[in-house]
Design a protein that fits this description.
The protein is an alpha+beta fold. The protein is built from 20 helices and 22 strands.
């Protein structure tokens, strides 16, 4: 490190070289620069030094690059403020210093020889790289330019010095930044590319694009962005890229084509930027095929739920009417002889009512509001017992086979309803093969994992028993598949089928806690797969209710609470004819007052589940606080309220499903009063 003592007259603001206006009228001898030069170079005439300093000082001080003026003897005559900053020198500290002091010791002799060979008449030298040394002894890379000039007969060398340390640090940072962003581009899991908005040619693609689209890099770089679009997408693409500015705003839905021809849904986002003086666009692609499929499943599920609620609500209200229609028809018929002219008319009313009741059961099944008598049963055994009947249903021109899983395939549900599922699927398969074919029913135990649950909305992972019905029929197109489980949707000619078969399957399976999915393509047949949660427990034989007349009556007091007037009137008529003392009410509050006003209390409560204001379960709870042993029969056309929410079939109460026959009501009342209940 070089340092020299300076008087106070040498002090200048740090970073600024002394600047003197050559035109100023000042005493040249008092100029501090000249005095320093005289002390440093006593052999040089004062007037010559003064002349050189006055001529160059103003120009050198204004140069933004570190600049030194060196005499023929190698001493620095003048240094500007930028040179002092570069070499970490105080103001004036470089003046009179040998130029070789600013290069490493081992290079000084070589530098001196080179300097002495550079004189007047030599062409300027620029861009020479060498190692320099700051005054604190720290070396740094520098780029040096030399120029010669003669002032008042004296040859001088002008040295321009650029500090490469900062530049190299900046270049290193830039290079690392470029490497980092290149790495992010190359290894981004989403396909990305850069293209020319003028020619639409690919300029670069990342690994994900190569992997997902199937083209290698060379193929990509020989293509345009139109080559990965289906024909129908090209007009929209051309319109989008023709927009000024950044092109697509946010994300844009589109469809792309892979090398193997498959087309998939994407969302793309684009950013415009400059590269090598031109404009380019960076594109990021998100494959949204799976998301769109799940969104469609969700929409379909929500639609089915909404339609199911509507269908269930209509069926529930209609069941109240059918209870009255069928009940009164049954009461009239019991009073008519078989040869009575009115008997045939009443029988027609009853048959029409039964058909209507069957239709409402289908609607309730689709809406998942059907009353289920749940129990554990073997699905293999159920299918085996149906096999003979199913062979008669499908006819001789269809080959029929069953492949039943080994061991017990236990599930929990209503066997009669699962029978309905099997029959509906078989009839649907038969209708899909008018010219004959092959129908297969298969059962087996399966384990549905989390991946399957993600792909099939609404499925819970776990053990299931699968029932698959496969046909070799005409299959279904995607637009048919999207509606296949909707009520009243059918592809059959007018007058053939109600369009409720598959919707009934959907409702029963989902109400049982399972899932049903269909796989089909035009000309390749269809497979319906039903997944029912596997169960463990004792297998019970399903017992259906008896519906014969001649049920014994009684004299007990029965309170009937029902908001539908026709159903209330029918129940009152049937029970009075059976000899019971009957109290009736249209709502829970009125029913409670009647019961509490009976001195001896009541023997049985028969109540609807869902009523305006207080419901049947709340009424039962209130009365049982006073009479803990009071038996209850609940009535409803809903299963959701009666079974799921209130657990009627698993509790201490009996349950009566609407519409019901008078004989069924009479037998249920007698059974409950005698201490039993119908499950």
């Amino acid at each position: 490190m070089h340092s020299r003592a300076r008087g106070s007259e040498d002090a200048t603001p740090e970073g600024e070289g002394p600047v003197v206006d050559p035109s100023a009228d000042a005493d040249p001898v008092s100029d501090p620069d000249i005095e320093r030069a005289e002390r440093a170079r006593p052999s040089v005439a004062v007037d010559e030094v003064r002349s050189a300093a006055l001529t160059l000082r103003g120009f050198v001080g204004a140069v933004p690059t570190a600049t030194l003026v060196v005499g023929a003897d190698g001493r620095i005559l003048l240094a500007n403020g930028e040179a002092e900053r570069t070499f970490r020198a105080a103001a004036g500290e470089l003046d009179g210093l040998e130029i070789e002091a600013l290069v490493p010791t081992e290079a000084r002799r070589r530098h001196r020889v080179s300097r002495q060979g550079f004189g007047p008449g030599r062409r300027p030298m620029a861009g020479r790289r060498l190692e320099a040394v700051r005054l604190d002894g720290v070396p740094f890379p520098a780029e040096v330019g030399l120029g010669s000039v003669t002032i008042e007969g004296r040859p001088l060398v002008v040295v321009a010095v650029s500090d490469l340390a900062e530049r190299e640090r900046a270049e290193t940072v830039l290079r690392k930044s470029e490497e980092r962003y290149r790495h992010l581009f190359e290894h981004n899991p989403q396909p990305m590319w850069v293209y020319d908005p003028e020619t639409l040619r690919f300029l670069d693609v990342n690994d994900a694009a190569v992997s997902i689209y199937g083209y290698d890099r060379a193929e990509f770089l020989a293509m345009t962005i139109l080559d990965i679009r289906p024909a129908e997408e090209i007009p929209a693409t051309l319109e989008a890229v023709a927009r000024p500015g950044e092109g697509y705003r946010g994300t844009m839905p589109s469809r792309h084509r892979r090398r193997d021809g498959t087309v998939f849904d994407v969302e793309i986002s684009t950013h415009a930027f400059e590269v090598e003086g031109g404009l380019a666009r960076l594109v990021s692609v998100a494959d949204v095929t799976e998301r769109r499929r799940l969104e469609e499943q969700l929409r379909q599920s929500q639609k089915m739920e909404a339609v199911g609620r509507l269908a269930g609500g209509v069926a529930h209200d209609f069941n109240n009417l059918l209870t009255a229609i069928n009940g009164y028809a049954e009461l009239i018929r019991t009073q008519l002889a078989d040869d009575d002219p009115l008997a045939a008319d009443v029988d027609e009313i009853r048959r029409a009512g039964e058909r209507a009741a069957g239709l409402t059961r289908q609607l309730l099944a689709f809406g998942r509001r059907q009353v289920l008598a749940a129990q554990v049963f073997d699905l293999d055994e159920l299918v085996a017992n149906l096999e003979a009947m199913l062979r008669r249903v499908i006819g001789e021109d269809i080959e029929f086979a069953t492949v039943l899983g080994a061991g017990q395939a236990l599930v929990r549900g209503d066997p009669s309803q699962i029978e309905n599922v099997v029959v509906n699927l078989v009839v649907n398969a038969r209708d899909a093969m008018p010219g004959g074919g092959r129908l297969t029913i298969e059962t087996r135990r399966v384990e549905l994992d989390g991946a399957y649950a993600v792909d099939h909305l609404g499925t819970e992972p776990g053990p299931y028993v699968m029932l698959a019905v496969t046909d070799t029929g005409h299959g279904m197109a995607p637009d048919v598949l999207s509606h296949v489980f909707e009520p009243f949707f059918t592809t059959k000619p007018a007058g053939r089928g109600t369009g409720l078969g598959l919707s009934t399957v959907y409702g029963i399976v989902t109400q049982t806690g399972g899932q049903v999915w269909v796989y089909s393509e035009p000309g390749l047949g269809s497979t319906f797969k039903v997944y029912l949660p596997a169960a463990a427990g004792e297998v019970r034989t399903f017992r259906r209710l008896e519906t014969t007349l001649g049920v014994p009556g009684g004299s007990e007091t029965v309170l009937v609470v029902e908001d539908e007037a026709a159903v209330l009137s029918l129940a009152e008529t049937v029970l009075r004819r059976q000899g019971y003392r009957v109290l009736i009410a249209r709502d829970a509050a009125s029913g409670a007052r009647l019961a509490e006003g009976e001195p001896g209390g009541i023997d049985l409560l028969v109540t609807d589940v869902v009523m305006p204001g207080e419901g049947g379960p709340e009424l039962a709870s209130r009365l049982q606080r006073r009479w803990p042993e009071l038996p209850v029969i609940f009535m409803s056309g809903y299963a959701e309220e009666a079974v799921v929410r209130h657990g009627m079939l698993d509790g201490a109460a009996a349950f009566l499903s609407k519409p019901f026959d008078p004989a069924v009501l009479a037998r249920r009342v007698r059974d409950v009063l005698d201490g039993g209940k119908m499950q």
